[in-house]
Amino acid sequence: xxxxxxxxxxxxxxxxxxxxxxxxxxxxxxxxxxxxxxxxxxxxxxxxxxxxxxxxxxxxxxxxxxxxxxxxxxxxxxxxxxxxxxxxxxxxxxxxxxxxxxxxxxxxxxxxxxxxxxxxxxxxxxxxxxxxxxxxxxxxxxxxxxxxxxxxxxxxxxxxxxxxxxxxxxxxxxxxxxxxxxxxxxxxxxxxxxxxxxxxxxxxxxxxxxxxxxxxxxxxxxxxxxxxxxxxxxxxxxxxxxxxxxxxxxxxxxxxxxxxxxxxxxxxxxx
Amino acid sequence: xxxxxxxxxxxxxxxxxxxxxxxxxxxxxxxxxxxxxxxxxxxxxxxxxxxxxxxxxxxxxxxxxxxxxxxxxxxxxxxxxxxxxxxxxxxxxxxxxxxxxxxxxxxxxxxxxxxxxxxxxxxxxxxxxxxxxxxxxxxxxxxxxxxxxxxxxxxxxxxxxxxxxxxxxxxxxxxxxxxxxxxxxxxxxxxxxxxxxxxxxxxxxxxxxxxxxxxxxxxxxxxxxxxxxxxxxxxxxxxxxxxxxxxxxxxxxxxxxxxxxx
Lengths: 271, 262
Fold this sequence. Notes:
The structure holds two protein chains of two kinds.
Chain A: H1 10-46, H2 52-55, H3 58-71, H4 73-105, H5 107-122, H6 129-136, H7 140-164, H8 168-176, H9 181-192, H10 194-218, H11 224-233, H12 237-268
Helix pairs in contact in A: 3-12, 4-5, 4-7, 4-10, 4-11, 6-7, 7-10, 10-11, 10-12, 11-12
Chain B: E1 3-15, E2 20-32, E3 36-40, H1 47-55, E4 62-67, E5 70-71, E6 80-83, H2 95-99, H3 101-105, H4 111-123, H5 139-152, E7 157-161, H6 169-185, E8 189-193, H7 197-203, E9 206-210, E10 217-222, H8 231-234, H9 238-258
Parallel strand pairs in B: 3-8, 3-9, 6-7, 7-8
Antiparallel strand pairs in B: 1-2, 1-4, 4-5, 9-10
């Protein structure tokens, strides 16, 4: 099935050129919009069209972040939040998937816990905040727990529905080969659900950040959520905006790491 | 010829919340060694159920099934090779790994069996494709890989559950020739379930027609074609339409009993 090397026709060359131009245009527009927004923001703040005391401005954000870098607070706050997020992320992905596997293997348990999962999923987890503080204390534990609570239910539900979507014929195929439950799990169920698992990772990146930042709003002495919350309280909007920017950067980095993992998995599967 | 598979008075009922459905009643037939037998019947008459019983996925309510003279017990029967409607290749395994799936599951992936799998791969035109993934193969190639995966564990009998129904018509004609050739040259016994009369006539040595539910053997038609004819060549043989009509007459009667118009 090897293809001979094709000499492109003029029409095909035109087509290739057109797709290249389209791609360049899109990437230009992406950067253009960012620059436009930042430029207008800065300009209207400088000309006092908007009040920079309330809206801050790109140059003020830049100044604030550079100050954080020079006095080192940036490391303390971003590390605190990143650390909490990573732990919450790891626990909810790991534990959530294990629970999903157990529920998949044990049908009566799955049927029993189904309504509980639905209720837990629809419950706004932030409502549990005060309980967490009373139970585990106002500290890192409560923040991490908040992150876990927010992402674990969706992890379990997504993975479980992924397991249940496996075509029955494939399971029967393994059964006719004499496979036991463990072999079906390891050879079929888990590898089959790997793409969905990566989607769950992507969802959980977002969820874990939401959870920890929310946790930091409730209880914390450090962290990006703390800075943002504190900045709002003392009406220092430069602080709030800068905190959001750093948060954006960290969350995107984590997301891109997962996206890179996805590309790697796809490549390994010959897609 | 030696009898390989035998159904003795087999009956099977399904239980649902509302009622009990008798799917198969007093089924009796036998398949000889190296024979290619097709089973046709009105839709929903329990053709797939038959295969599930042979594979040990379902337990008959009464009666017994013998494979090589031994009664099939209430457990999975791993001496059969089951092919489904879809190829069911695993996307995350390459061709070679897919072919060796049965060997790994049965924990018989020894050098001898691996060599045999490689031999099958080379013999049936998949050499060079071992490292490819299923998404890189055509529909016909995928079906061939699925057959070789089934053959790799050296089953006593192949159970084919409409394995050609998921591919388009042109591919189906090619795959039928292909699979027929491989099964004959490996001297395997095969039991094909299909709703396609022309497929049954073009591929098999014998056609068993089932009745409407509850299913029993309505008729047993031996096909007399030249041994060297491919399934495709058979389609232009004058006997082809005779057999086709003969089977259709029986099936038409059975289907009409099923019809809501009566």
